[in-house]
Design goal:
The chain is α/β, with parallel strands linked by helices and about 500 residues long. The protein has 21 helices and 11 strands. Strand 1 and strand 2 form a beta hairpin. This is O-fucosyltransferase family protein.
């Protein structure tokens, strides 16, 4: 039995010690049961409290996403320097419902894919779309792509400096897992140099990645693709593959809020003065040196451009006949030639012409004839102050992103050379409803220009010929040209992603 022995008094209360006796197990059991019951109650209270707190956090987050931006917009003095007139354009845009994050796609992860993009902004943009698609169909985890920092432009921008990285990751979570960096153990291995790196074969079918690349990923766990431009074929892919490429391009690759906001400001300033045309005048020093196109350049300029071409070992073509290349339509139009073409197309001289380009080689001297024909020439540098663009200086890809946004919204987009920006913007404008894009036939145009300049054609004959040539080159619905044996010569997928928009019957034509 249990006995209680008195060991003293305190305040009139007897203090004792419970001692276990020969058959007194029942008292111990009651104490033990009481302890277990107390612990259970504490656990239940903690669990219930955690659930309630988590529910409150989720509800507050949802309310914050829905109402937070509206509340902040109501305090312009705190968060915005815009005046009330800025909302005039934004008010016309229908309100966008709160974005719903898609559920995660559950799949067995076969490994990790690292990619290093090469080239300018739009070359890298297309490559990113391809690499996301490849990662999804290989069931691997994609690491946020590394951007080119060693090209001619030497832009130090990281992915998150140009694109909204969190939107990129979350908007694609139902297709592929994307991480900002490798897990720590694998990251250490890569930093020590233990990574399999290779350039994939250009214009490859998705089956190439299944048969050749996936086994390498499964073997090494991490693989690094170090050149990613034009690595997935334009044609012959399944509809799901093509649609995912478009989803990444048109929905997941959103520029940072800072770039988007500045783009809206430029568009607003242009819209205040009526319609505007974006002229992608590809007449920068690097373009001329790379292409070897010296039309209209003096001897000193020809020598300077030639030296530059030889200075870059990856510009493989060194000896170039500029005149022959021009006649083949492989040179960008000069500012003087461009002025003639715009006039021949009856572009109103009172239209604003926004120059989407870097610094024009030859400066104001080369732009004189174009400025005389179209006095409302503008650039981002003339529309915005130094303080607005200061952050973007020496970041060519971020400046190109600004031009990209303006190009999408223009009444007409006219590229003078079919480089990567011309192609990708053309395709994006098709996706937005076949917005007018005049695709210049340079091979025919230089012949017409030469005939006009030597007096073989009158102005009326010249103008009629230019207009007739471009009647069906304005971004209308058309079939993409397929050349199975010569993928470099066929139409680029991102210039005309026809699988990604609904076409009315009978609207597609061959061009």
């Amino acid at each position: 039995m249990c006995s209680v022995e008195g060991i003293g008094k305190k305040g009139g209360m007897r203090i004792g010690v419970i001692k276990g006796g020969g058959g007194g197990a029942s008292g111990g059991e009651r104490v033990e049961k009481w302890k277990k019951s107390s612990r259970m109650k504490v656990w239940i209270i903690r669990a219930t409290t955690s659930v309630l707190l988590w529910t409150c956090i989720v509800q507050l987050t949802t309310l914050g996403e829905t109402w937070g931006p509206r509340v902040l917009k109501g305090c312009p003095s705190c968060f915005s320097h815009q005046d009330s007139s800025v909302s005039a354009i934004e008010d016309k845009v229908p309100s966008v419902p709160a974005r719903v994050i898609p559920p995660k796609r559950v799949y067995k992860n076969n490994g990790y894919l690292m990619v290093s993009c090469n080239g300018g902004l739009n070359q890298m943009r297309a490559a990113i779309c391809d690499m996301v698609t490849i990662a999804r169909y290989l069931n691997v985890t994609l690491i946020v792509p590394e951007l080119d920092k060693t090209s001619f432009w030497a832009d130090p921008s990281e992915f998150q400096d140009i694109f909204d990285v969190n939107h990129f990751i979350t908007s694609l979570r139902d297709e592929v897992r994307i991480l900002k960096e490798l897990p720590p153990r694998l990251k250490r291995r890569v930093e020590m140099g233990f990574v399999y790196s290779m350039p994939p074969i250009s214009w490859s079918d998705i089956s190439y990645y299944h048969n050749q690349i996936l086994p390498l990923i499964q073997k090494y766990k991490v693989i690094h693709l170090n050149r990613t431009d034009a690595r997935l074929a334009n044609n012959g892919q399944s509809l799901d593959v093509q649609k995912l490429r478009c989803r990444v391009n048109f929905n997941a690759l959103r520029f940072t809020p800072q770039i988007e906001e500045l783009g809206k400001r430029v568009i607003k300033l242009l819209r205040q003065n009526g319609p505007f045309i974006v002229l992608h005048l590809r007449y920068e020093m690097d373009m001329l040196a790379f292409s070897g196109c010296m039309q209209g350049c003096n001897n000193d300029e020809v020598e300077e451009l030639t030296r530059m071409r030889y200075a870059y070992p990856w510009w493989k073509e060194k000896i170039i006949n500029s005149d022959l290349k021009r006649k083949d339509g492989l040179c960008p139009l000069t500012p003087e030639e461009t002025a003639l073409i715009l006039r021949a197309l009856d572009i109103d001289k009172n239209y604003q012409i926004y120059i989407a380009a870097g610094e024009i080689y030859g400066g104001d001297k080369r732009m004189a004839s174009l400025a005389a024909a179209y006095p409302k020439l503008v650039r981002k540098e003339t529309l915005l102050g130094p303080s607005d663009l200061g952050f973007f200086q020496n970041h060519s890809s971020q400046m190109a992103a600004l031009d990209y946004l303006v190009s999408l919204e223009s009444d007409i987009f006219i590229p003078t050379y079919d480089g990567n920006m011309a192609k990708v913007v053309q395709g994006h404008r098709r996706y937005l409803g076949f917005k007018q894009t005049i695709l210049l036939d340079r091979r025919l145009l230089v012949d017409l220009i030469d005939q006009y300049n030597n007096g073989s054609l009158s102005w009326i004959q010249f103008s009629d010929a230019v207009k007739e040539t471009h009647e069906r080159r304005r971004g209308q619905p058309s079939k993409r040209l397929v050349i199975p044996d010569r993928p470099k010569e066929e139409d680029y997928f991102y210039a005309n992603p026809e699988e990604c928009f609904q076409q009315p019957d009978g609207q597609l034509s061959s061009t």
